[in-house]
Specification:
This protein is of the alpha/beta class. It has a single domain, classed as Metallo-dependent phosphatases (Purple Acid Phosphatase, chain A, domain 2, 4-Layer Sandwich). Helix content is about 35%, strand content about 20%. It is built from ten helices and 14 strands. The strands form three sheets. Strands 1-2-8-9-10-12-11 form a seven-stranded mixed sheet. Helix 1 packs across helix 3, helix 4 packs across helix 6 and helix 5 crosses helix 6.
Amino acid sequence: MPDPRKVLATVSKATELTRRTPGRSGSVVSLDAADEVMVVGDLHGNLSAFRWVLTEAALDRHPGRHLVLQELVHEINKNQDDRPDLSHRLVDLVSALKCQYPDRVHLILGNHELSEVTGRIIGKDGQALNLRFRKGMQLSYGEACDEIFQAYLGLFSALPLAVRTPNRVFMCHSIPDGRYLDDLDLSVLAADDWPPESMKRGGAVYAITWGRDTATETIDRFAAMVDADLFVTGHQPCEEGYRQANHRQLIIDGTNPYPTYCRFSAKEPATIESLVSSVKVMNVLSAS
């Protein structure tokens, strides 16, 4: 069993560092000093993909490179078996990575982390993912489970909603559905803490993490609202690991069999074509 005291200390430190990330204003981190950004798709506890990402990122050898991660929790269990969800291990590892590279590792809020904060149950393949997550934690941490879970909630509540670069690329978990845009209160982007109503259906935090609208009109309107030209998002599964959703948006997926990242310059002019060409896919089937 991992040492619960060490886990608590690491997660608490990562939470503090997340709120104090250089370039952060409210719930957006601006990477003004970055040379290059590497964005990873939804991981959902995918440790093999995370190890691959760490090797590819080589943060120790590239001091100008920043790493953006998302959606760590709730393992994909396509076999619908009774094995525990151990995706909390990825939360611990990313917390340690944040402590090691506090200025250059950025975890953005995903809808699955938000569901843990709000207590909204997510069901998939006939399973309640939140309950599986807690059972996995109980197996690993025993009596310390509740205390560590509260530390996780503190970390998730401290996460930025978005990361942006000087060349006008905006990284968030998803794009709000068009039907919400007229009344969307984006003041949460400038806020350090989110009002409870913003995390419910129709609220801005909910919309930025749960949206699936890739229509041209929607992406153009949202681009004007956040003053960006291009978007790299996750949230939606991609059969080939990534998908160009429209003329502004690249969707990437970090789950098997094709976990994906894109790595691009934070300073050179960017286009949707340059983002797509920066994609790299790990073929888990071949690797195994």
